[in-house]
Amino acid sequence: MSDYSKEEKSRLIVEKLNDVFDVRVFKNKDPYRILVRIILSQRTRDENTDRATSNLFSKYKNIYEVVDAPTEDVEELIRCSGFYRVKARRIQEVSRILIDQYDGVVPDNLNELLELPGVGRKTANCVLVYAFDEPAIPVDTHVHRISNRLGLVKTKNPEDTEDELNKFVPDDIKILLNDLMVQFGQNICKPTSPQCEICPLVDLCEKNI
Hints:
Layout: H1 6-18, H2 31-41, H3 46-59, H4 63-68, H5 71-77, H6 84-102, H7 110-114, H8 121-132, H9 141-149, H10 158-168, H11 171-187
């Protein structure tokens, strides 16, 4: 498939995956809720994240209520997300910093987001993408693995993958590429035993797995 440039190949990937998966969107674009949801999503399934987020914001409506809530109550509300004690402390710690330093507003700047405790590049980029519609590529283990399997990059870690993808993936498909690759990695191109027999990208894959 060397006839395609990397930009062309990335567009083909989006086109083919878009026929298989529905792009997920956040109906509520509140940056704070999105940041909290992404913190809750770490090391758990989407359905657990959805339930924990709903539980928390059904009782505590905004950043000021969350930061003043009893930590034990926050823990109980988000228990289904796993690692709930660590996540509860992290959510309240980040909330306090946002209130003290940013007047309760989540910054739309990558460097400022990265200064928040526990917020890495993936989380920061997710906030930029889903809260502010900024063209960024949050690279998790799925995006890193698949980008290498498909021959888009040859990298050793997610940060290098992000840097390389940003060199050729057009801004208008960055958000789509990330979400579709994550779903593809969760359901078809799994870490072990990828389902090549049903893969919509088999004709684009260089099989470096």
